[in-house]
Amino acid sequence: MLNFGIKDLIDILLVATLLYYVYRLMKRSGSLSLFYGVLLFTVVWVVASEILDMRLTGTILDKFMSIGLIVLVILFQDQIKRFLIDLGSQRRWTKLKNIFRHNDERDGTEHKHIMQVVYACMSMSKSKTGALIVFQRKMPLTDYEKTGDIIDADINTRLIENIFFKNSPLHDGAMIIADKRIMSVGCILPVSHDMNIPKELGLRHRAALGMSQVTDAVCIIVSEETGNISVAKDGEFTINVSALDLERILSDL
Predict the structure, then answer these.
(1) Residue 167 near residue 188, CB atoms below 8 Å
(2) Which of 45, 90, 127, 149 has the least C-beta neighbours within 10 A?
(3) How buried is residue 207: exposed, middle or buried, by Cβ count under 10 Å (0-12/13-18/19+)?
(4) What pLDDT does residue 2 have?
(5) C-beta neighbour count of 108 within 10 angstroms
(6) DSSP 3-state assignment of 142?
(7) What's the predicted TM-score (pTM) here?
(8) What's the CA gap between 24 and 16, in Å, rounded?
(9) Beta 131-135 vs 174-178: how paired, if at all?
(10) What number of other Cβ atoms are within 10 A of residue 39's Cβ?
């Protein structure tokens, strides 16, 4: 007789939750097919070694699993880092506290910083000036900041426009904003190799999507060809964003 208790239910829920987090992580990084392959291999391994008790096949698959885990950790160290940070994040508790706490001065300062970026993006959109702005969230972006020039300046509309001006020596690369300050400019970001990205989107869009796949950052892109504003977040694009939508997205940060 099969005994099924509360402990078994908790065990199933924990495994299901873990698989969901891994699935979401792989989907954001564009490696969903790899997730299905690993899942299928794991099912075959469990059936062969635990259910059918196939000792020789199980032993061989055991060796592959031990080596395969090390290879996966090396290949997806950035994604695993993001998964662990997201798992231990206090963002939900912070949102709950903000419901009961209101600070007019803080809200006014944050909105001022947001509008400085929105005004700059709208101005660059009209002049078709290409730009890529990265907003840090929970995951530190120190390694990416070091690839550019550290300036640690106040968020200012004119400063953002001057940095991305076509003849400016700092216009190439990305600007990283962290802790309500422009930390670094001319930064190099990881480029996404997702084949589903529309061909009309250029290198800036691929870099923004790649950054949103390996970190929890939010990236704003101003197209040099069309002037359209796009946002990359959690491995997905929002194309042709209006000023109101951009303000709302940044306010949600």
Answers:
(1) no
(2) 90
(3) buried
(4) 54
(5) 9
(6) helix
(7) 0.62
(8) 12
(9) parallel
(10) 14
